Structure to design on (471 residues):
């Protein structure tokens, strides 16, 4: 096993070096460039023919987190009770390769890992010797796509009014909302709110599923639809308790997202939509989407009797990203707001904790949070979520760095809780070369619920510094 894993990593490294060396050696013949896009250059691009219609492109990026976390009551870290914890970890490490040898089809591969911290990251567990923190590397995306009607006319280089592509594989052409299709290297805030992916790491693999999809434009209407096979879930519901993830029957799910684009069109070579074009585009979109997954959750109303329930998630959103003020100031105003309605079954409730360092403090005798320990919070549930984020690119004063303060607000009302919860984030992005080098400073505040009355009994905070580098 050790030999195989070592060889796989060596082969992966060799493949990356070979691609890079081929790109460098091809500089004078077929031509290599860092493709210019609305946000600056966008990855390494190797032209495979003189026209540039055949190409190979590669992006590499990392996101590093340094946090101080106010833990939920009753938390221990490495068996030591802690109210606050200093945390460090790699949130994302990715290599993305895609391209085409013909204008009629495209291949996408993306691999990497997520969520490696000082306390976790995969492997066999975190033991006293420090083993088990090495994260697995796996494919996030692996799909092929047939381009029946291209987005851009290859002769005139202008956008076509109508376009259509269909594809199949492990993909994330998702429904529900724009944020469900978010690019994690073009986020407005330091991280996504996570509830924007309704099946995240439960019936999907890091927001991806196996399936078929179609995407394109009908005039100003952008669309993406997919039919997917959810990953199996098999949680057992308690008698008289809430719905849990158990897709017995495992029927295919249906996704769709549609957006009317009043001004400039989004770039959709890949599934990932940008949270800001930094003043290089004028974008005003309204959208709506759906996820429907039959027999997705299960309850046990009486002992030995199990009932399956369909999952339904609806979203409606608006996105505005516009240059404002004098052109030489290069300012941009960005606003995104989305409303979700979700029905996962009776009293369905799910928690999350990104890179959670906590474990249960068995000596604690005070009131504990329903969410659990560490930085756990209620993520999703049957009910409603309203989320809004906004940012302002401050006037340009330097050619090296830009400042973009932002704010985000979340309101959640779940059937299983007796009080709505509100969260907020305040922060600022320091952007270099578009956002190819980025530092984000963020403060977030989350509500915590008591099991006694299922109402908010206190709040907890988190300070985050995120650094991002990508090429």
């Amino acid at each position: 096993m050790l030999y195989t894993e070592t060889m796989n990593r060596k082969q992966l490294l060799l493949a990356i070096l070979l691609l890079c060396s081929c790109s460098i050696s091809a500089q004078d013949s077929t031509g290599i460039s860092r493709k210019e896009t609305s946000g600056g250059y966008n990855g390494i691009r190797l032209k495979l023919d003189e026209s540039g219609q055949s190409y190979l492109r590669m992006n590499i990026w990392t996101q590093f987190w340094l946090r101080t976390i106010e833990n939920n009551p009753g938390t221990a870290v490495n068996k030591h009770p802690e109210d606050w914890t200093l945390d460090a970890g790699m949130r994302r490490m990715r290599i993305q390769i895609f391209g085409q040898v013909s204008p009629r089809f495209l291949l996408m591969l993306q691999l990497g890992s997520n969520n490696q911290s000082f306390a976790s990251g995969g492997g066999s567990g975190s033991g006293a010797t420090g083993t088990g923190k090495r994260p697995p590397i796996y494919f996030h995306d692996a799909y092929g796509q047939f381009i029946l009607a291209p987005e851009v006319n290859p002769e005139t280089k202008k956008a076509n009014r109508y376009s259509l592509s269909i594809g199949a594989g492990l993909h994330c052409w998702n429904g529900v909302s724009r944020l469900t299709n978010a690019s994690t290297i073009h986020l407005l805030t330091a991280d996504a709110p996570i509830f924007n992916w309704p099946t995240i790491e439960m019936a999907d693999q890091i927001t991806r599923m196996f399936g078929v999809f179609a995407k394109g434009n009908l005039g100003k209407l952008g669309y993406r639809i997919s039919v997917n096979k959810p990953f199996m879930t098999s949680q057992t519901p308690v008698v008289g308790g809430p719905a849990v993830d158990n897709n017995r029957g495992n029927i295919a799910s249906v996704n769709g997202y549609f957006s009317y684009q009043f001004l400039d069109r989004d770039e959709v070579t890949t599934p990932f939509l940008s949270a800001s074009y930094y003043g290089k585009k004028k974008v005003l979109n309204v959208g709506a989407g759906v996820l429907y997954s039959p027999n997705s959750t299960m309850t046990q109303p009486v002992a030995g009797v199990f009932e399956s329930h369909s999952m339904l998630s609806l979203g409606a959103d608006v996105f505005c990203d516009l240059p404002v003020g004098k052109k030489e100031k290069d300012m941009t105003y960005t606003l995104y707001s989305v409303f979700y309605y979700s029905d996962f079954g009776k009293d369905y409730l799910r928690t999350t904790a990104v890179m959670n360092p906590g474990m249960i403090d068995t000596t604690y005798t005070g009131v504990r949070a329903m969410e659990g320990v560490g930085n756990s919070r209620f993520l999703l549930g049957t009910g409603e979520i309203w989320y809004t984020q906004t940012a302002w690119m401050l006037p340009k004063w330097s050619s090296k760095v830009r400042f973009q303060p932002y704010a985000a607000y979340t309101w959640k009302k779940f059937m299983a809780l007796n009080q709505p919860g509100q969260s907020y984030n305040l922060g600022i992005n320091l952007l270099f070369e578009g956002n190819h080098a980025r530092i984000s400073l963020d403060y977030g505040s989350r509500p915590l619920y008591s099991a006694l009355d299922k109402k908010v009994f206190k709040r907890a905070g988190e300070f985050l510094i995120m650094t991002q580098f990508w090429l």
